[in-house]
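hey
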């Protein structure tokens, strides 16, 4: 209807020029041709190529009929007037096409500018997004508002959620959005005027976007999709950071509480240990046999509880970020010897084989913490090995690192348990009747990792286990 109206207006303008030039103020054919060209240029500027082309053909006929002799007929007597007529027609058609092209390019430039302004407005609006609301919902609302789309829907693959506004047939669109994200396919439904496009970050699809009646260029649509992808990824990154921060604070609080509680246990444990030790070592104390047995049980319980509290404090410090190394230069053999002296009461009656390689270099370690690791590995070997089976302890040089190992002849560890044995509080199925909390190997791993090295186990069921850990060598100039 609008095209028909513009055609009628164009023909009316040609008719007006004809009437004025032929009846009101008669002019010659040159002036008439010029007036027709001006009218066609005005039509091309105000209308389009169709209107200007029709006006050119009608103006040619009027020019021939009213101004070229013989006037009043569509015939031309002078051959030169044929040249003039076709020159007029070619000029008018060319002028109308150039004018229409210029107008179209101007309109396209304005459309691109408008799209860029809308994309900028969307980006600015998303910068002010409410952190307490889902970013997908806010993206849908802002796209619908800024681009004035009647319906928008967004599928966030990471969250598994679909956010929409304006769509009545939402269930049917749900599957289409998920399919577009899964297969990374673009689709356009001409009947419903809905465009569904995948959202990719690099080559990885992270969702899909559906819009209805979107008069956007392909470049603008791709820019919109890229903008949505950036904000979805940013929201996911922020959520990951927030979760990590919450987890870190939770671990810090847990470690602080554990440290505080463990320290509170230390004072009464020290008092209990002092009393039991005094009673058991004082020859003047006249204790009956069952009394001495009960006090011995209490003394052993105090020792065990003290060990557990010490491990809890150490684990709390490690997890709370208060784990510091006081490094010094030490020989691996001296570290092993110091531990064996401390554990002499536990190793009496057991066969301990010590094998330390000759001329081992110095290692740069926190001696107290490394000795704690060695002591725990020896204690484990004593627990799991049969009474008469030997325990091997040694140190060697391997790939530029000092390696300390403790081997036993116990029942061994399955492959499945080897992947979990260094986890906090983990105890194997065969450990249920043994004393311990499952913290020792976890603490040992963190101590060795704090030195920048690793601890590992080699074991087969029925063949025993060998726990090994590496230590960094001291600089060549260091001394004991």
């Amino acid at each position: 209807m609008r095209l028909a109206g513009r055609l009628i207006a164009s023909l009316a303008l040609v008719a007006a020029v004809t009437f004025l030039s032929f009846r009101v103020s008669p002019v010659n054919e040159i002036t008439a041709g010029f007036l027709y060209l001006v009218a066609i240029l005005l039509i091309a500027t105000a209308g389009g190529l169709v209107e200007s082309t029709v006006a050119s053909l009608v103006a040619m006929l009027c020019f021939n009929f009213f101004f070229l002799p013989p006037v009043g007929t569509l015939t031309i007597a002078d051959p030169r007037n044929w040249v003039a007529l076709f020159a007029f027609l070619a000029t008018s058609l060319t002028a109308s096409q150039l004018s229409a092209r210029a107008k179209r390019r101007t309109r396209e430039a304005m459309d691109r500018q408008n799209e860029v302004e809308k994309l900028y407005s969307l980006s600015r609006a998303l910068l002010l997004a409410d952190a307490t609301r889902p970013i997908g919902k806010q993206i849908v609302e802002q796209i619908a508002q800024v681009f004035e789309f009647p319906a928008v829907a967004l599928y966030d693959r990471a969250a598994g959620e679909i956010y929409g506004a304006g769509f009545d047939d939402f269930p049917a669109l749900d599957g289409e959005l998920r399919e577009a994200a899964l297969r990374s396919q673009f689709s356009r439904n001409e009947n419903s005027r809905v465009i569904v496009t995948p959202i990719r970050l690099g080559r990885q699809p992270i969702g899909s976007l559906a819009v209805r009646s979107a008069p956007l260029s392909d470049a603008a649509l791709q820019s919109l999709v890229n903008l949505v992808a950036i904000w979805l990824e940013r929201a996911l990154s922020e959520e990951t950071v927030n979760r990590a921060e919450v987890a870190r604070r939770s671990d810090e609080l847990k470690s602080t509480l554990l440290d505080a509680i463990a320290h509170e246990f230390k004072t009464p444990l020290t008092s209990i240990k002092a009393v039991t030790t005094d009673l058991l070592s004082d020859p003047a104390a006249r204790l009956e046999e069952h009394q001495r047995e009960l006090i011995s049980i209490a003394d052993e319980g105090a020792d065990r509880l003290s060990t557990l509290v010490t491990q809890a404090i150490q684990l709390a410090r490690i997890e709370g970020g208060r784990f510091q190394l006081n490094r010094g230069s030490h020989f691996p053999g001296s570290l092993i010897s110091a531990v064996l002296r401390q554990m002499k009461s536990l190793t009496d009656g057991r066969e301990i084989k010590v094998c330390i390689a000759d001329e081992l270099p110095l290692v740069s370690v926190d001696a107290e913490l490394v000795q704690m690791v060695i002591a725990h590995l020896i204690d484990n070997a004593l627990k799991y090995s049969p009474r008469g089976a030997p325990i091997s302890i040694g140190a060697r040089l391997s790939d530029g690192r000092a390696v300390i190992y403790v081997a036993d002849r116990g029942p061994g560890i399955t492959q499945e348990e080897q992947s979990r044995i260094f986890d906090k509080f983990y105890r194997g199925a065969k450990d249920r009747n043994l004393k311990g909390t499952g913290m020792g190997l976890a603490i040992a791993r963190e101590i060795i990792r704090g030195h920048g090295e690793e601890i590992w186990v080699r074991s087969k069921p029925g063949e025993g286990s060998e726990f090994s850990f590496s230590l960094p060598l001291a600089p060549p100039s260091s001394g004991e």
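The longest strand covers residues 204-212. The chain has a mean pLDDT of 79.
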